[in-house]
């Protein structure tokens, strides 16, 4: 299974321990300051790109001294550095892509990065946005299985862009059966599994699943 990890330049304190993903991720890419984060962890990159306007001259020189091959883009462009890195990752035809360093800080960046997950439906690759406290994935209509996780005990299901029809949750503390859930509803916030695995299904719409935890001081 080919899995690419893309690390962007969001706040470092929200990054999970990237080394714990090394057995999962087969290739890494850095976007802008995310290149520094990967280099600091001595994680080899298949791609390092961006306008690098968020790193210092000294940091850039250090990257070049380490032999990091930087693909430099102009600051004025039609796509963010994160989207450019995601597009590169999609071109590699992986099975999954993880986006790190894409939450916290500026809200416009956060919303833009969440919308980037929609690319998976055109490209046929699962994209997961992950930080220290959350994992975010999108789903189209169908039936899916979800397994219990001690790291992310809470699950929220949020209709995205439109209503969701006939949402069914089984194996959850708060089950549902063929429930209509309108766009912007908070009905399915903060649920929990009561079995080792559960299922969710729905007939139409796009559903955002957020797996979360409260205590950011716990190791991950």
Tell me about this structure:
This protein has 220 residues and is of the alpha/beta class. 20% of the residues lie in helices and 35% in strands. It is built from five helices and twelve strands. It has helices at 33-40, 57-65, 81-91, 107-116, 119-123; strands at 3-7, 27-31, 47-50, 70-72, 96-100, 126-130, 134-147, 154-159, 164-170, 176-181, 191-192, 197-212. Strands 1, 2, 3, 4, 5, 6, 7, 8, 9, 10, 11 and 12 form a twelve-stranded mixed β-sheet that branches. The chain is elongated, with a radius of gyration of 18 Å. The chain starts with a strand and ends in an 8-residue tail after the last strand.
CATH class of the largest domain: Alpha Beta
CATH topology of the largest domain: Rossmann fold
First and last CA, distance = 23 Å
- Helical stretch count? 5
Total strand count, please?
12
User: Over the alpha carbons, how many angstroms does the gyration radius reach?
Assistant: 18 Å
- What structural category characterises the helix and strand content? alpha/beta
Q: In terms of per-residue confidence, which ranges show pLDDT below 50 for 5 or more consecutive residues?
A: none
Instruction: Tell me the CATH superfamily of the largest domain.
Output: Thiamin pyrophosphokinase, catalytic domain
Shape: elongated
| Tally of discrete structural domains | 2
Average pLDDT, all residues: 92
């Amino acid at each position: 299974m080919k899995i690419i990890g893309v690390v962007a330049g969001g706040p470092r304190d929200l990054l999970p321990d990237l080394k714990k993903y090394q057995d999962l991720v087969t290739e890494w890419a850095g976007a802008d300051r995310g290149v520094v984060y990967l280099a600091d962890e001595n994680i080899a990159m298949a791609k390092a790109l961006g306008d690098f306007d968020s790193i210092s001259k000294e940091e850039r020189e250090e990257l070049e001294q380490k032999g990091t091959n930087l693909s430099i883009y102009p600051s004025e462009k039609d796509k963010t550095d994160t989207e450019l890195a995601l597009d590169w990752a999609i071109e590699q035809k992986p099975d999954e892509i993880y986006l790190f360093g894409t939450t916290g800080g500026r809200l416009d960046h956060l919303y833009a990065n969440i919308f980037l997950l929609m690319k998976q439906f055109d490209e046929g690759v699962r994209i997961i946005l992950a930080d220290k406290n959350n994992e975010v994935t999108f789903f189209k209509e169908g039936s899916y299985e979800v397994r219990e996780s001690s790291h992310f005990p809470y699950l929220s299901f949020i209709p995205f862009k439109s209503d969701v029809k006939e949402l069914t949750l089984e194996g959850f503390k708060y089950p549902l059966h063929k429930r209509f859930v309108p766009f912007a509803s908070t009905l399915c916030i903060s649920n929990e599994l009561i079995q080792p695995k559960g299922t969710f299904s729905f007939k139409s719409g796009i559903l955002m699943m957020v797996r979360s935890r409260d205590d950011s001081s716990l190791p991950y």
